[in-house]
């Protein structure tokens, strides 16, 4: 097992180097000049321009800049934002919990609804439930979530007034930032109504973000179940007169869960992409919105290191999924 | 290719017959799936709308009528029969814009899938066929691309290339291309073990011929399924880029761009927000329904379930 | 963490008291930081310079007039180059968990605040890597200020290189906020100089409490404030970049006041009895600048003809949704010296067509540059360009609309030999006409590094500006600027589009908010009815 993990990790090194090259080079060839953006309508003299570029280190040859970048990375220095002048890592970490909270909630919703729906649809294959839920899943899978979010805002916030429009918690509540997760911090604060407020802020964005993963998970669960239920051992168990719930519960479900868990794990990339849109629509102070804003502002160091951190994150989660998969399914390891 | 043996003619005939049988079988499975047929019909309608846009659209999609700003749809109070789905903030007919928008979406889908498919196949074939370090390098690069969330990478790429429809399509195609490359490579690797490949090689077929004529046709099924999936994702992602202001630029009646322009009216004029999104949803849904049908019909492993 | 706990309990306590008032402002953008000097965004100043800090001179609320701030009074030498400021005594610095001041505000703080920006070798000049003092530089302070001397603890003398009429207005700007030298020393000693930018200490009406990135900023009333203390106890900025969402929150009672509503929502806001709307012509101008060095646009008659072919009112209606006044002068009507006797060119396509023919221009095709971003002076440049395109096609001029990424747009539009007319605009920094006319239209700024995008260099016009700049008497200056506007109109280097109206929607419960012509949002005078 250890060798398996090590080989997987080693395998990641070149990929990670590739990621640094991409993150660095893409960002460096971005058109648009941060110095000009800082000057705005007023303009900037050529001398001042040169001075500022030099100060930011953009006058050196690209290769040198890359090695500078890599060297600083190894020391844990991700650079400073051009706009706020603060370390990128500090900013990333201060926004990260918001995205994680949103993402976890979304994946929770997707799993808790998607798996039972998929199982039920498989058991009652061809029933109206199967047809309705699978149609709904396909609609969800096809959903432009940026539009879906707007519709939910119009309906639930605008017309019904049930949910707040944006933000993470009502401003009436103010408590220390212990974990960075609003739901937990609001409970820790002991302030009445804080948790309810945090929850009501979280609900629409996480539903929007959950939409596509939910659809994928439900569909994947259904087909995995169908496949397993067709296998010989399940048929045998059934033929032996085992009660249906045991057949499904013990044999089918357990084996069907292997691909489903993989699917859930692989949703992280989907979630990150979804977070960009969801956070934009709901003014959610997370990583996705931060990246969009930084791209628009040509905040080179933020885009560069942000890309890197996000890619590293996706890689690590994928690795964990691989490892889990290896644990559940020893055949993979042997190969 | 001059050394075709004289016996080739009858073989080709039977080839055609086999192909006909395969298509008939495919259609049988495909038409079993009611959703897929509905999807196909909607998709064909969409193609028709796009092709005949200039005949169908009641108005020019970019002409502004300053006397009719934000007119609601016909069934609502204040609506006008000449603007069935209402007008936008500068008095353009929404229905006409949606009709012309179909052209954009289909065009985007076709272009993105073609670039990604061709690029992916070539890269995948190279990697799978030659193996060794070529394979390692190519697959590492693909891993790197896949490590980024697709929309984020596409966003940065568009920022690099400059916002606009062409660049958005290129960016999305680059992001999708590794999926095709991986599929092709996997298929090639398994096909390489087969006897017919060895046979062809022994018969003296060149590398190119082996790759494109012998192996590729046998890996097509998963590629077609992936292509359909990518088609719908391309429509979605390009709309998302448009929504974020990085895709097609106004006044182009691209659906995502229309949504982005409409965002400021979400509380005042629901129709400018609702219809473009609905158009995206319906087209993507139709393509996905078709994709499901295709997969069921082409993928023998899933036929059973 | 501990700091937050204490504030939390303080807030909980104040919430328990019935009369504690929390004012919530749905701000538009995250502050870049809390030290006003290195930044340039209005949203940053609203969260730093205005609530937390003061300056030697201040803008009188609701005007662009200068009044005493931390300087109680000042004397100007005969030749206009020496300014001697008498500082206010007994002004207390704020405190936080890490810092308790031992002394009041004095001359050392003033000198520190300026020198850290002026001197490249000052230990605080680069207290965060990559920091620059853009406003200090762009307001030409390095060329202007010769020396700053401390006469005694409460007297400071500024010596200028040449007389500069707008100087007192310049130092009322946010970048000239006075920071505490003692706090700086304490931070340096603690090895955390970056806290200067994270945990500001000032003399202003509000104390900084906490900032959660991209989400919330919290301030608390400063009970020791030297001026009239704030009315509300707590001030909260809820950062909400999207205009539609801001309005939703305002309607839902989640905030009391918001900036920059979408023009489309103005009518609905006016109709809503729970809201009220303040409005004022903004200190800005949107324009289309021709390249006056390129044929046929080097001919004023051609520029005039094009100006007459564009329906200005239609742009105001469709793009600004009526939330603007059509512009006839390059400076806004709220600014002193605005020449109201000037007649705008009429909208007359027929006459315009004739004028073009007379000028010998046929089959003209041109480019119009549309900015890719929304700015206070221009809500949608693309839409504006489209309207212009349609209007100009009616007199036989074909227009191609081009656009670039914003930074590139700014740079390329200033390149000599630029092809086409550029849509752009300007928002005033300090309410002085010089800040519009010299920056945007003088010969000096027509070259590289300037902002004169018409490349228009009219000697008579520039001479008037130069004279006005060294004239101290406001009446004389007014006469000079009025004359300059006449020349501008005759020569028509721009198609002046509009001065956008600033709207500030707020809850009907809010009273005492004063709109700033400079576009600042300040809250020490606001109150909320129960």
Automatic annotation (TrEMBL), chain A:
Membrane topology: Multi-pass membrane protein
Keyword match Hydrolase: no
Keywords linked to the UniProt accession: Cell membrane, Membrane, Transmembrane, Transmembrane helix, Transport
One Pfam assignment: BPD_transp_1
InterPro entries: BPD_transp_1_N, MetI-like, MetI-like_sf
CDD domains: TM_PBP2
Transferase is among the record's keywords: no
Location, primary (coarse class): membrane
Stretches assigned to the ABC transmembrane type-1 domain: 96-321
Compartments (UniProt record): Cell membrane
Transmembrane segments: 9-30, 95-123, 135-162, 194-217, 264-287, 307-328
Protein family membership: Belongs to the binding-protein-dependent transport system permease family.
Protein name: ABC transporter permease subunit
Species, as recorded: Tabrizicola soli
TrEMBL record, chain B:
Record's subcellular location: Cell membrane
Main location: membrane
Domain called ABC transmembrane type-1: residue spans: 102-291
UniProt KW keywords: Cell membrane, Membrane, Peptide transport, Protein transport, Transmembrane, Transmembrane helix, Transport
Membrane topology according to the record: Multi-pass membrane protein
Residue ranges of the TM segments: 36-57, 106-131, 151-176, 265-287
UniProt-listed Pfam families: BPD_transp_1, OppC_N
InterPro entries hit by this protein: BP-dependent_transpt_permease, MetI-like, MetI-like_sf, OppC_N
Entry's family note: Belongs to the binding-protein-dependent transport system permease family.
Protein name: ABC transporter permease subunit
